[in-house]
Amino acid sequence: MEKENVTLLKYRGSKLNKVKELDFFPKVEETFKQKSSVGGTLSIISFLLILWLIYSETVYFWDSKFVFKFIPDNDYDAKLGINVDITVAMPCANVGADILDSTNQHAYKFGTLEEEDTWFELAPNQRRQFDNERHFNSYLREEYHAVKDILWRNRYIHISQELPPRSEIPNRPYDACRIHGSLILNKVSGNFHITAGKTGKSISLPRGHIHISAFMSDRDYNFTHRINRLSFGEPSPGIVHPLEGDETISEESMYL
Ligand SMILES: *[C@@H]1O[C@H](CO)[C@@H](O)[C@H](O)[C@H]1NC(C)=O
């Protein structure tokens, strides 16, 4: 019995040694090794790199992730906000913006949008911000949808900001109309439109309304526009509103 145990231990020991000796890389004798500062530096660099990788992987692991779920909205009575900030290259006197929905309520029930005469051309400081937003949005929209995951993970919060005030005021008459504000909508089908001509508030039609543009000449029409904001609901990080940062110049009146 005793003997058997001893041989078993011996056997085990020899096996372990064999594993220890097993090495795919030939060992170099200590005497042949030479220490160099380059090697040391490389060791330090790789050590730091490993530390950094461990750190970033841990941060990545702990950080939050966005998971999107789509569920039907059955809260029919709730209202939905729409946020608008659009500049059209026509003076406010020639532009009308409103909402028509299937409940056929009057547009002013939803709130009012402010109309502000302005110049279509942006001041340099505004141009810079608008271009940034435009590039960023078109990049996300057209090229790398997944980039946004990384941006949000880094707590990058993209809530589009108001344009800064003009750094210089042009010395010419206003040539555009900025329509901005928020409206509260019913959750039913409807349409929001901005078009030439003021709404005839005094003319009530059983369904819909008309925009009166009888006193405008063809030259007055210019559907060139810029969208700073067009979103639904409360501002929320991580949602890219595809039309924000859009600018369309129309060279011919009546066309877009
Ligand atoms: C409309 O306005 C824009 C900006 O001011 C201008 O570039 C464009 O040429 C205009 N189009 C017409 C048809 O007048």
UniProtKB/TrEMBL annotation:
Residues 171-248 form the Endoplasmic reticulum vesicle transporter C-terminal domain. It is found in: Endoplasmic reticulum-Golgi intermediate compartment membrane. Keywords: Membrane, Transmembrane, Transmembrane helix. It holds the Pfam family ERGIC_N. The chain crosses the membrane at residues 37-55. GO terms for cellular component: COPII-coated ER to Golgi transport vesicle; endoplasmic reticulum; endoplasmic reticulum-Golgi intermediate compartment membrane. Residues 19-106 form the Endoplasmic reticulum vesicle transporter N-terminal domain. It is a multi-pass membrane protein. One of its GO terms (biological process) is endoplasmic reticulum to Golgi vesicle-mediated transport. Belongs to the ERGIC family. This is Endoplasmic Reticulum-Golgi Intermediate Compartment (ERGIC). It comes from Popillia japonica.
